[in-house]
Amino acid sequence: MKSIDRNVVMLGWVSYFTDLASAMVNPLLPIFVVTMLHEGMDKLGVIVALSTFVSYALRLFSGYLADRYGIVKPLVVGGYTLSALSKPLLGITHGWQGVAVLKSLERFGKGLRSAPKDLLIATYGKAKSQGRTFGFHKTMDIAGELSGTLLIFTLLWYFGDSENVIRTIFYATLLPGLIGVVIIAFFVKDAPKKEHSAVRFSLSARDKKTILALIPYFLFLFFIFNEAFFTMQAKSLGIATALIPLLFVVSTGTQTLSSYLLGVCVDRCGGGKVMAFGYLSGIAAQALLWLQIPFLTWVAYAFLGLFTVATLNANRAMIAEGSDNRGSVYGVFYAGVAAFAAMGAGVGGWIWEHYGMTSALSFSLVGTAVAFLLYAMIRGIRR
To answer: How far is CA 116 from each of CA 64, 247, 325, 373, rounded to the nearest angstrom?
Structure first.
């Protein structure tokens, strides 16, 4: 890791503190909405769908701005600032509509910064080492999540899981969020300015080929359970609220231990094999949830972690190596994630609310298996 550029290291610390704050919110928010605000799973599905769409769709626009006009660091700083200020306000909400607005605002900040941030990482990453670079950054990202989940587990264990305690935890996210903003504002260099021509921007042939390769991933995201649904499945099986953060510890711990190694595998073995491993891990996670055995739910979170980190590292490295207009292709990537993950959350929440958890789990398991078969067929045809 000595070869990792200083700017990438600083960006890693920004992600560490920001994701620490996010991890203090994400495991508790579904329980807060469903059991404390007394809203249904369909309303939770709407919140997840709306915030996901806002988060990822905006990355198409921010990626375009980064490539076309060279606006990179200001978008990253603005995005982190917006996220840091919106999380604590969740503590004052009293209805699902308020949660939806604030969660979407927080995700708006993430959408604003993500594609330009990936462009910064790719800019300061060394040639033929993009897998390692993104693997390192993801390790810092997930380490922040791990720290945040351990922190809220400790707080819930000592102070209980009452509504007042959970609201106070939301307020406390302000501190780590602002630490991340200070680091990105003062300790990370902007990307080198490029001369932009007056010619209308367009994607190159390499860019389009890379985007087409992402389609099976988008389809997989439509079917796989969102983390919020993982949480409510665990709650439905009787796992105590105070233990829910430990489920996230299993997922983030798995990601922390495997992210850099999987990044190395992307460089040495190729992203295709790592993607296949990620898809199979996602299917395993869904299958274990479908069995509805509490112990296996814990194992499912480990496989969810492997799916998340393997597919994300492989896709981000593939875009870095195979694109001419990286910022814009990252934007397209995240926009596709937005559309398919948002639709999937909406459909999954509706099925759960009207037909039950088992039906939602079956829909997800069959769908992820079909998406993997499509990926395998496309790779076979290309070979």
So the answer is: 9, 31, 12, 33
Q: Confirm if 109 and 78 have CB atoms less than 8 A apart.
A: yes
What is the SS3 assignment for 71-94? Answer: CCHHHHHHHHHHHHHHHHHHHHCC
Residue 127 DSSP symbol: T
Q: Kindly report the CATH class assigned to 6-187+204-382.
A: mainly alpha
Q: Which tokens in the block code for residue 230?
A: 């993982």
**Residues 373, 381: Cα–Cα separation, whole Å:** 12
For the stretch 350-375, what's the b/e string if a residue is b when 16 or more beta carbons lie within 10 angstroms of its beta carbon?
A: bbbbeeebeebbebbbebbbebbeeb
Beta carbons of 259 and 160 less than 8 angstroms apart: no
**Residues across the chain:** 383
pTM attached to this predicted model: 0.73
Q: Which of 58, 11, 97, 16 minimizes the C-alpha distance to 342?
A: 58
Highest mean pLDDT among 124-138, 219-233, 254-268: 219-233
Q: Are the C-beta atoms of 279 and 222 separated by less than 8 Å? A: no
DSSP for 157-181, please give it: HHH-S-HHHHHHHHHHTHHHHHHHH
Cβ proximity of 96 and 34 under 8 Å: no
In the chain, what are the domain boundaries? 6-187+204-382
Structure tokens at 24: 């203090």
Give the other-Cβ count within 10 Å of 22's Cβ: 22
CA distance 337 to 214: 10
pLDDT digit string, tens, across residues 165-211: 999 999 999 999 999 999 999 988 887 776 554 445 567 788 888 88
Nearest to 267 by CA among 72, 19, 3, 60: 3
Spatial contact of 107 and 200, defined as CB atoms under 8 Å apart = no
φ, ψ dihedrals at 93, nearest 5°: -80, 150
Distances (CA, A) of 66 to 71, 73, 250, 320: 5, 9, 35, 15
Rounded Cα gap, residues 148 and 134, in angstroms: 21
